[in-house]
Amino acid sequence: MYVGGTASIDRQVIAKQSAERGRASDVLQIDRSTVLPDGPNQRWRLDFVSDALTDARHFRILTVVDDFSRENLVLAADTSLSGQRVARELDRVIAERGMPRTIVADKAYINGGRLFP
């Protein structure tokens, strides 16, 4: 007996139809990040948030969250966040807590120094 919802069935039908048409770009990928970690420091989620001040100046905020404990590990705000700044913030939190097994960033995995799209 199938227990999933209609959205799950719809995704399966769309994936099957797309595969039959040979359109690989329409086939939905399984999001590996939906599997919950079973302990802290296993998977961190890296993301950027942006907004604008009343004088129209834009700023970005780097957020890094532990997916198990939902603890905010990094919250760095600036008008410009370079790759060097992101690396420096990650190095700082890794020195404090140790290296996570996986870092998820924009639906991509950073695992053992390799990026998996």
Short description:
This protein has about 120 residues and is α+β, with helices and mostly antiparallel strands.
Main features:
alpha+beta; Nucleotidyltransferase, domain 5; 2 domains; six-stranded mixed β-sheet; disordered N terminus
Secondary-structure blueprint:
Layout: H1 6-21, E1 43-52, E2 58-66, E3 72-78, H2 83-97, E4 102-105, E5 108-111, E6 114-116
Parallel strand pairs: 1-4
Antiparallel strand pairs: 1-2, 2-3, 4-5, 5-6
How would you characterize this protein structure?
The protein has 117 residues and is of the alpha+beta class. It is built from two helices and six strands, in the order H-E-E-E-H-E-E-E. The chain has two domains: 1-30, no CATH class; 33-116, Nucleotidyltransferase, domain 5, CATH 3.30.420. Strands 3-2-1-4-5-6 form a six-stranded mixed beta sheet, with helices on one face. A hairpin with a 2-residue loop joins strand 5 (108-111) and strand 6. It is flat, with a radius of gyration of 18 Å.
